Write the structure tokens for this entry.
Amino acid sequence: MQDQLGNIKGSGSFAVPGGTQTSTMSCNAAVSGYFALTATLSKAGGALPQAGTRPAGIITFGILPNLSGTIPAVAYAYQEQHRFGMQGFNDNGPMLTDLGISQTIDNRQLAVMEPDAANTWTPSLSDLDPFYTSGRIMRLIRLDGIPAWASPTGAFEDDTNAPISETYYQNFMARVGTDSAAIREAYFPNQQYDYYQVTWEPQWADSAANFVAMYAAVYKGLHSTDSNAVVMGTTNAFPGNCASQCTQGYLQTYVPLGLGSYIDGVTTHSYYNAGTYPAHPPEQYDTDPNPANVANALDQQLRALRAEMQSFKPNMRLWSTELGISYDAGAAYGPSYPPANQLYGQAAVAIRAHLIILGEGAQVTYFFYGADYPSEIGEGTFFDIVDPQGQYGATNLSPKPEALAMAALTRVIDGTQTLGHLNGLPSMVYGYAFQQLNGGSVITALWTHNNAAWPTSAGTYSATYSTTYALTVDSAGTSGHVTVIDMMGNPSSVAYSNGVVNLTLTESPIYVVSSNVAAMQSNVTAPVGYVGQ
């Protein structure tokens, strides 16, 4: 039995009678995290077979972290104070609960509700997916998609052209608002607002005026019937530093034409590279000598987006509604792929990226995706152990390290407000501070990244590269202990003196839990326009 770093955590043998048998082993674990079991028959030999997208030689399982005695419980005044959503596990309530997910995307597109003809949908609580009636998982309401009958091209359009009738579209959105308000009243009494995402990675081919007009129709329709509507866009693939594919670029193009009057917040996808792989970590460009390349780092893109938002409507919400990390370019599912090191790299990069997103001022971040699927190799956080190419909606699953690292991340960071990025960090050291709601504990996420130890083309990603960093956690002259939690959610007590704790940082993030808020606030820069949940 090995953990995500390849450390052997246990071994042994047991008798296997002839024929088809089921053997059960017990495991008493003092740690949480991801584990892979390998096994061979002593006489017949041979490794465990490939199962779906999981390679040959292993079976995997996870032990969820229990931080109830480490991270104080938080009282949420409103449901939307939670910070984590996910794509790919809609209707899989137990999995979402295990991962610590509080919201998913629900469809109310015209193309979904009225695919064949106008005026064929009347809002009714019976339309709600029964999964949401428990009220535990909040809805982000998706609106993109124009059916052929409403499209100027006569074919289905997804964020390329405005519908042929803005009046009809506004009327439809008024019905969506009625629907959402009724659902919130019936099932989500602790939710303040209804949240809508208008477009999804738009590839706009219509006129600029029609883009703004479409948003105006959506905004006016929703707000006419849902006084608690929060209308968000434009949800481009990249946060910033480009014109045609970036949320910042779309804001720069369309806000001068009036778009700012028709959005209450901003949604973005947070892909920071043409391919978000372990070989393309979010910090890859931060140390580049060319400033034009530095601007492509994820932290810099998000700062640019936040500044753009602040320039036309201060203090808006920012939600990142998708970011996933696939296997490296050219990968293919197979009996010998992925190796353990690829899985480790995927987990470390994904968790760092989501910490950057939250640390740079997004209130919410969405994981992507549930299980492996065919088109983006390895982008699932779980293996599909039935289909060798993966399948959307798979339910027979086996976890990757990324899944257990996500479960730890949500347990540590959910229920916090972002304080900001640490000031004066050495090159290749990253740190973001958060504070629990209601004036609770400070949680500081830290790691190091070195391109030399993390090749920017597929290779071996170092799990041992490290550097030291002295973090101020208390006032000068004080001593005591802080709790340090590893990437998989395992806590340990570490002493500090003169207000400073000495840490060893690796490419795997750690979390430091401390109590002196003033000491931390004096050493951070808050994201522009961020005002919490």
Summary: The chain has a mean pLDDT of 96. The longest strand covers residues 429-436. Residues 420-525 form a domain with the Immunoglobulin-like fold (CATH 2.60.40). The longest helix spans residues 166-187.
